[in-house]
Each structure stands twice: as C-alpha cells, then as structure tokens.
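Appendix B. Chain record.
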Amino acid sequence: MSGHSHGAVGRDARPLRIVLGIGLTVLAFQVVGGIASNSLALLADAGHVATDVAGVALALGATWLASRPVSDGRTYGWYRAEIVAAVVNAVLLFGVSGYILWEAWQRWNEPGEVASGLMLVVAVIGGGANLVSLWILREPQAHSLNMRGAYLEVLGDLLGSVAVVVAAIVIAVTGWHQADAVASALIGLMILPRTFHLLREATDILLEAVPKGVDLEDVRRHILDAPGVRAVHDLHIWTITSGMNVVSAHVVMDPDGEPGILLDHLSDCLAGDFDIEHSTFQLETPEHQLWEGKAERVRH
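Structure tokens predicted for this chain:
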C-alpha cells in the first residue's frame, strides 16, 4: 500500500482569502449601486456574488478542515469536507438562480426607471475585480474541485458584469429599461449549466464513482499483465478528494510468486501510468480464490 497523498487542498488557503476579500468588497459596492440606480441586474449580480462569497467561505473552511491531521476515528482526515462544500455551494447557486429568474420576470412585466450611468460604472468596477480574482485562481483551479467551483463562480460573475454593462449601454442609448430584466435573466441562466456540472462532479465523488480520466478495464489489464498475476477481482477505483484517487483489488498470484516484488510492481505501475498513489491489494492464492467463491455461495 502506498503512502497517503494529501490531495490538492492544503495550498489553496491564501488565494481563497484574497478572493474572499475581493468578493466582499464587490458585494457591498454592487448592493449600494443596485439600490441607488434601481437596477435589478446589478442586484442580481450582487446576489450571485453573495452566493460566491458564501461558496468561497465554505471552500476556505473545507481547506482548513482538510489540512487537519488524520486520527484513529478519521483515517482519511477531513479530505471529503472539500466535496461536501462543493455540493452545498451548488445547491446555493441553484437557489439564487431561481430567485433571479423570478425577479427578472416581475421586472419584465413592470419595468422601472434605471440610472444607467451609475449602473454602468458599478458594473465596470465589478468586472475589473472579477478579472483580478480569476487571475489569482487560474492555477489552483486546475488541481482542485473546490477551487474550480470558486473559479467558475467568479467567471460567472464576470459574465454577469458584462451583461450589466451591455444593458446599461442599451438603456442609456435607447431608453429601453426592460434591458435590465433581460440582463438579470441572462445572469440567472448563466449560473445553471456550470452549477449542474459542479454538482455532478461532486456527487460522483460522494458516490465513489470511477474517477474521470481513469478506465477501469485499462487498470484491470495493467494488473493482469503484471508478472505472476493469474486473476484480479473486486477491483474498485474511487476518489477521496481532488487529486487523491484510490484503488483496491484482490489479486490472485502464482503460488511461487514473490509478494513483495509483486506489490512493488503493481504500486509503481498504477502510480506511473494512472497517477494513483494510494493502492491497496489483497494477494491471494488460487486455492483461496476457490474457498472465497464457495463462502460467497453459502452466504447467498
């Protein structure tokens, strides 16, 4: 069995703190600007930012939990806290999206006067802040589901700011105040696809599905190709947290095989070909496999 990998969570605290600070600043600015300009689009974007701030705070808390040492009661520590935070984040995003779409429908039917100049200034400043946050998260998001969720949220905020900018220009040039409702609806709709994707990835991990990019049959073939292996069964591959895939399997070996050499070969093979550092193998003789099959039939 190879040593534990600490996943991708430990290095993420500093960028999350910075992004959290930027998000809180943008949130306060957009709420004040949205109320002052009577812009639902700005308030919708502020609602999105509020959820993002909550999501980043959850991610930061999950990062701290995941950095805690393992114990006899939690042999994998708190690694799964990252995934739970991603699920909670996705649920919050779905709720905000539904509320924004409802309010956009109300504003479409009863449009109000919007101060397009103030709306434009606030949206441009918010978009600039989002660009800074995206730059900070550009590298961490590549190795962590939690950080990817934060990155996608900030990206959605940037797209929302662009929609608000366009709506402000349309209102200023044409006087069509319903553009504010259209921009709000676009922001609500933009949240949905990426939120669904994030929730699906997190749910797959919680349900211990085979990790994306790993072919179960390919792993099986590599194990069977190892010298001294006769068969493999009860093969399982799952993810503990981002960057930490795990394999367990029952391997039937030749009676005259060398267990130590075989274990080293299998561990090196999976680490080198599949980037799986944590593997657990139960080595069995052909006789044990026959006994195990009989015991299974008796239980049923």
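Further analysis of this model is presented in Appendix C.
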